[in-house]
Amino acid sequence: MSDLCRLQTEAMEILKATSRTFFIPISYLSPGLQEAVASAYLGMRAIDEIEDHPELDGTTKNNLLTTLSELLKKPFNENDIQTVLRPYNTILPAVTLRLHDWIKLCPPSILPDILDAISIMAKGMAKWALKEWRIQNEKDLDEYTYYVAGLVGVMLTDIWKWYDNTETDKQLAIAFGRGLQSVNILRNYEEDNDRGVNFFPNDWELADMFSYARRNLGLANEYIKSIKTETIVHFCKIPLALAYSTLDALAAGKEKISRSDVNKIVHQIVKKP
Predict the structure, then answer these.
(1) pLDDT digits (tens, 9 = 90+) for 33-85
(2) What is the DSSP letter of 125?
(3) Would you say the C-alpha torsion 3, 43, 191, 173 has a positive or negative sign?
């Protein structure tokens, strides 16, 4: 097995361990596209794990994320990234400590776009870590969800264009990311409150966040309509359907949808006529 094949296998294993929600649609992507999206997702997940880490304070997160953001603007240097992360070897997860590997997995011709998106994400997360995620209003929520999820949509839009010249609307892509992120906020809001973090704007109730989520997921539906490539359509439809089902489950007082429900949703989307 070549080093690249081994790295791809390890990447999919870590992806499955960190996010089954995205592992499923990524596993259905065609060769070449799968490596690009897996690399991009794991790179962003590496950054996200720093922002969410319970043992790092806001200043440390800000410094580390800002440093990584600047490094990702430069030509890729594996040693520089490892040097920055080395002091945190005992507390950061493997998905973060192996950021350099996910960069090596990426097809070279799309790598600059992916690194740019991850760099912008890291810078935005650094800002909000220093602000202790104090979201005052919907404008703040839009900015925060842009950095942590809307940028994923922007990056994927660039990847679709690179793969087969598929053209999609970046504003709708941002809404797609916001919709998925707001579902995560709703799913985790009690746990977030327990750790002293609240992503709800001042005076917002649960109903307001549900409305925000459904409005942005509606725009995600519009985003998919312009896509003709089957493998990309499947990729987009799976997390969108899971998000809608999760919203319905949360509204009914459930914590999440069942694994069997997930399997049914995926099967309905990818089954052949």
Answers:
(1) 999 999 999 999 999 999 999 999 999 999 999 999 999 999 999 999 999 99
(2) H
(3) negative
DSSP class of residue 32? T
* Domain 133-273: CATH architecture, name and number where available: Orthogonal Bundle (1.10)
Question: Would you state the pLDDT for residue 68?
Answer: 97
Predicted TM-score (pTM) of the model is: 0.92
Domains of the chain: which residue ranges? 1-110, 133-273
Q: How far apart, in whole angstroms, are the C-alpha atoms of residue 193 and residue 90?
A: 27
94 vs 88: CA distance, rounded Å: 11
Phi then psi for residue 250, to 5 deg, are -65, -40
Q: How far apart are CA 170 and CA 152, in angstroms?
A: 10
pLDDT averaged per 10 residues in sequence order, the chain, 273 residues: 84 89 88 94 96 93 97 94 96 96 95 96 96 94 96 96 96 97 94 87 96 98 94 95 95 88 90 63
Residues ≥6 apart with Cβ < 8 Å to 173: 150, 153, 154, 156, 157, 223
How far apart are alpha carbons 96 and 65 in whole angstroms? 11
Token readout for 244 is 């809608």
User: Could you identify the residue written with the tokens 């579902």?
Assistant: 183
Encoded tokens for 65: 């994320």
Q: For residue 75, report the phi and psi dihedrals to the nearest 5 degrees.
A: -55, 140
> Could you tell me if 152 and 44 are in contact, meaning their C-beta atoms sit under 8 angstroms apart?
yes
